[in-house]
Write a sequence for this structure.
C-alpha cells in the first residue's frame, strides 16, 4: 500500500482514500451479494443505496484508527462494513417523504423514488439488521469475543436514541423553528457525530487501545464530527449540484438550522478550522501511523462534496 | 412460581402466562424508561407500541425453552426482551401507510396514527437498534460471550432478509396477486415463523442445548410458527373486534393471501391441529420441564385473540 510517496515523504491522501474505499467496496459486495427469489427486490434496493457513490468515510476512519494503534483484528472489516450499512440505512430512512423528503442523494434518485416507500423502509431495516448479523458472524474468528460485544454495544448506542436516532428526532422537532447554537450542536453531535465518533473509537478498540488512549480517539471523532457537519452546511451554500450530488440551498429552502445561518460563512469556516485543529491535536502522539487520520481531518477544510 | 396446581397436577397455563408476562413487562419498562430532552418523543412513541397490549409470546417462548433444558443464563431476560422489541418494531413499520396501512393494532390506534409517520419510522428503528444494544450489554454478566454472539447472529438472521424482512417483502410483492400454497407458506415461514423459531432456539441455546437437542426446539418453533399463522388467519374470519383488537375481515378486504382462502376453514383447522401435534411431539422427551411449551402450543387451537 502506497502511503508515503515522493522524496519529502508526503502522505498521498487521495491514493490512500481510493485504496481503502476499494477494500470496503469489495467487502460490502461480498458480504451482501444479490439474491434470487420473491424477496430479491429488498436486497436489490439495499444494494442500490449501498453502492450509490458513498465515500466510505466511517469504515475508512475505523480502519485508520485501528492502524494508528498498530492493531490486527480479524473483526475489523466486518465492523467497518457494518458502520457503512448503518450509515446507509439512516440515509434511506431520512430521505423518506415523512422525514426530510429528498428526491436526490449523491446525484441519484433516492431509494424510495426508485423502489417505492414500502421497499425503501424495508431496505433500511435490512441494512440495520444485517449490520449486526455481520458483526456477530465474526465471532468464530476473533480472539476476544467480549471485545466484539463491546464494539457492537458502542455502535448500537451511537446509532440509537442517545445518538443518531435521537439526533434525527431533534431535527424533526426543530424544523421550521428558531433554535440556538447549543441545540444545533446537540442535534449534529447526535445525528452525525455519534456514529463518526463510534467509528473511530471501535477501530482503536479493535486495534488494542484502551483507557486514555481510547479517549484520544474519541476526542478526534468528536471534533471531526463537528468539523464534518460545519463543512457540510457550508457546502450547501457554496457548492453546486455536480460536486455535491444534491441541490445546493436545500437546507435554506427547508428552513433547516445550519451553522452558516447561526455563525455566518466566515464564522463557520473559523469554527471548522478550530475543530480540525483539535482533532489533529488529539492524535498527535501517534506520529506516522496516525498520518491518515490527520490528513483526512485536514482535508475537510478543502472538501467540495 | 405456581406451575403445577391441583391434585391432578394440571398445568395452569393462564397463571403461567400472566406471571411470565409480568416478568417481561417489568423488564421492558426498566430497560427502556422514558427520557427527557428534545428527542424524548421517539422514546415515548417506542414505549407506546411496546406497551400496547402485546402478549409477549416470543419472550415467553424463549424463557420456556430455556427452562425446558434447565438452564440459568444471565443473558436470558435481555435476550427475551430484545425479541419483543424486534417484534414490536416490525409491527410499527408493517402498519405504515406505505406497507399494510393499518389504523388499529390490538384495539389502539397504530403508532403513526398517534405520532405521525416520521416519528413512527424512527420509533421502529429505535427498537430494532436498542434490541441489539440490550443484548450486547449483557456481555459483562455472561460466562460464554461466544454463545451470546451466536444468539445475536441467529436473531439478526431471523429478523433479516432471509427471515422477517424477506417475508414482509414477499407479502408486499404478492398483494392483489393469486399465489399458491407453497408461496403462502414461504411468506409466513419467513415473516412470522423465523423470529418465533429463533425465540425458541436461542432460549434453548442459552439454556445449554446443543446438536440434536437444539434441533428439537427448532422443530417445535417451526411447527408452532405455522400453527400460529393459520390460527391467526382463521381469527380474521371468525373473530370480532373486541377480542382481536382489529377489524375482522381486513385480510379479505386487502386481498391478502390466507390459509382459509386456500384450504377452507375446516382444512385450515386440520392443518393447525397437525402442526400443533408435531410441535408437541418434537419436545416430548423433556417431560415436565417442557410442559409450558406443550401447553402454549395446544392453546393455539383455542385462541380468541
Amino acid at each position: 500500500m502506497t502511503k508515503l510517496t515522493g522524496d519529502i515523504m508526503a502522505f498521498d491522501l487521495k491514493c490512500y482514500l481510493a485504496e481503502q474505499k476499494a477494500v470496503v467496496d469489495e467487502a460490502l459486495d461480498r458480504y451482501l451479494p444479490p439474491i434470487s427469489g420473491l424477496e430479491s427486490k429488498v436486497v436489490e434496493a439495499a444494494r442500490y443505496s449501498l453502492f450509490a457513490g458513498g465515500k466510505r468515510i466511517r469504515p475508512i476512519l475505523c480502519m485508520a484508527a485501528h492502524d494508528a494503534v498498530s492493531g490486527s483484528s480479524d473483526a475489523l472489516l466486518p465492523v467497518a462494513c457494518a458502520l457503512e450499512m448503518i450509515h446507509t440505512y439512516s440515509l434511506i430512512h431520512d430521505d423518506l417523504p415523512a422525514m426530510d423528503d429528498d428526491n436526490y442523494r449523491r446525484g441519484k434518485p433516492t431509494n424510495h423514488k426508485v423502489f417505492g416507500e414500502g421497499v425503501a423502509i424495508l431496505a433500511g431495516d435490512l441494512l440495520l439488521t444485517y449490520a449486526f448479523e455481520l458483526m456477530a458472524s465474526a465471532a468464530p474468528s476473533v480472539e476476544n469475543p467480549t471485545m466484539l460485544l463491546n464494539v457492537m454495544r458502542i455502535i448500537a448506542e451511537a446509532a440509537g436514541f442517545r445518538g443518531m436516532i435521537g439526533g434525527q428526532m431533534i431535527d424533526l422537532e426543530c424544523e421550521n423553528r428558531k433554535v440556538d447554537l447549543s441545540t444545533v450542536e446537540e442535534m449534529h453531535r447526535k445525528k452525525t457525530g455519534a456514529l463518526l465518533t463510534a467509528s473511530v473509537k471501535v477501530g482503536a478498540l479493535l486495534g488494542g487501545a484502551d483507557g486514555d488512549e481510547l479517549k484520544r480517539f474519541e476526542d478526534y471523532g468528536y471534533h471531526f464530527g463537528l468539523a464534518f457537519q460545519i463543512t457540510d452546511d457550508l457546502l450547501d451554500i457554496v457548492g453546486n449540484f455536480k460536486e455535491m450530488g444534491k441541490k445546493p440551498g436545500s437546507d435554506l429552502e427547508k428552513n433547516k438550522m445550519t451553522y452558516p445561518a447561526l455563525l455566518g460563512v466566515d464564522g463557520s469556516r473559523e469554527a471548522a478550522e478550530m475543530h480540525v485543529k483539535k482533532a489533529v491535536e488529539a492524535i498527535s502522539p501517534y506520529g506516522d501511523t496516525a498520518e491518515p487520520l490527520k490528513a483526512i481531518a485536514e482535508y475537510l477544510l478543502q472538501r467540495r462534496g
